[in-house]
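Workshop exercise sheet. Pairs work together: one partner reads the sequence aloud, the other fills in the structure field after running the prediction. Swap roles for the next sheet.
Pair: D.N. / O.F.
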Amino acid sequence: MIVIYGSIRVRAGELAEISKLAAAFVAEVHKEAGCLAYELSWDVADPQRLRLVEHWADEATYEAHRVQPHVATWAKAITAVAETKLVSAKFNATLR
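Structure field:
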C-alpha cells in the first residue's frame, strides 16, 4: 500500500472557494481504481493549512492517479491560492 501525507497553506481569502473545489476533487478521486482512502482536511491548529492523506492499493494505482485530468485541474487551482509549496512524504506501507 502506498501512503501519502502532505500539507499546503492557503491564503485566507481563498478558503471558502478552495473548500468547494476540494470537495468535488475528492469525490472524483474516490472513484479511482485502487483508491483506498483520500482525505483533505483543514488543520485545527492552523486553519489555513490544508492536510492531505492518501492510501493507494499499490504504486501502479498511485501513478495512474497522478496523471488523471482532475488531478491536473486541482493542482492548478490549489497552487494558484497557496501561500506555501506542497510538502509531502510518500511511504510504502504494509499491514500485517
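Discussion prompt: The helical segments are 15-30, 59-66, 69-81. What would you look at next?
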